[in-house]
TrEMBL record:
Primary site of residence: membrane
Recorded catalytic activity of this chain's protein: 9-(9Z-octadecenoyloxy)-octadecanoate + H2O = 9-hydroxy-octadecanoate + (9Z)-octadecenoate + H(+); 12-(9Z-octadecenoyloxy)-octadecanoate + H2O = 12-hydroxyoctadecanoate + (9Z)-octadecenoate + H(+); 13-octadecanoyloxy-octadecanoate + H2O = 13-hydroxy-octadecanoate + octadecanoate + H(+); 13-(9Z-hexadecenoyloxy)-octadecanoate + H2O = 13-hydroxy-octadecanoate + (9Z)-hexadecenoate + H(+)
Name under which the protein is recorded: Uncharacterized protein
Membrane topology: Multi-pass membrane protein
Length: 237
């Protein structure tokens, strides 16, 4: 309990400060690369994910204080249910989606995702906070605390809604600025863009199953120990 509370306090400070710094001090020069007045910093999935993590870890901290971290709580409080659901559909899949996609594209050709000129106004520590630490924190969270994953239907619905809203937002930005949020979209033709969008949607869905697999792998035995079997119940009777 003490570890989870301390960890969540650190996580809240890390992500809330990163979110505040990004909103308060990050200004993008109006040049050939950036300068989106429409939408501001919220045009990026990276910042959406940062917002998800701020909300998630605040809720996790509140759950430490007024909820429960038991593997199988008798009466799961509402805040615990929210924590578990947000981890499954947002915190884990989108953190790894953002982190892995960013670093893979950086390795292939950084001009497609973050040209070198961005280094002039985007500090290295903030880059790692929003693209690296996100994966570190949710991985620790996965192994530190048990959770009940939602039904796949419920999870798929939640993820698809988030991605549909964000993809709609990308087209809204394009319609208002005549510019694509991500440089890679400008070099693709329409069939390639459609394939890219389909791939982008599929990644968090696949990552949901990855998270579900590791959650079961790590916590299945703990859950079974806390859940009396039918034979044990019969013996007790």
């Amino acid at each position: 309990m003490a570890f989870s509370t301390l960890f969540h306090i650190i996580a809240v400070i890390n992500f809330v400060y990163g979110w505040y710094y990004d909103r308060a001090y990050m200004t993008e020069p109006d040049n050939k690369f950036r300068g989106f007045e429409f939408g501001g910093r919220m045009i990026y999935l990276t910042i959406w994910n940062l917002t998800f993590l701020c909300v998630y870890f605040i809720i996790s901290l509140l759950n430490d204080l007024i909820g429960t971290n038991e593997a199988v709580p008798k009466n799961s409080p509402f805040i615990r249910k929210i924590r578990d659901y947000l981890f499954a559909i947002a915190a884990f899949p989108f953190s790894f989606n953002v982190g892995l996609m960013f670093w893979v594209l950086m390795f292939v050709d950084r001009e497609l995702v973050m040209p070198k000129e961005v280094d002039e106004f985007f500090p290295l520590w903030l880059n790692h906070l929003v693209h690296t630490s996100i994966m570190v924190f949710v991985t620790i969270e996965m192994f530190a605390l048990p959770r009940k994953y939602p039904s796949r239907k419920s999870a798929m619905t939640g993820i698809i809604i988030i991605m549909a809203i964000y993809l709609g937002w990308i087209f809204c930005i394009k319609a208002n600025t005549n510019r694509w949020v991500y440089p890679i979209l400008a070099v693709l033709n329409w069939p390639q863009r459609i394939a890219f969008f389909a791939f982008t949607l599929s990644v968090p869905l696949v990552l949901y199953f990855v998270g579900e697999y590791f959650n079961n792998l790590v916590w299945k035995s703990a859950v079974e120990e806390k859940t009396p079997s039918k034979k044990k119940k019969q013996k007790q009777k």
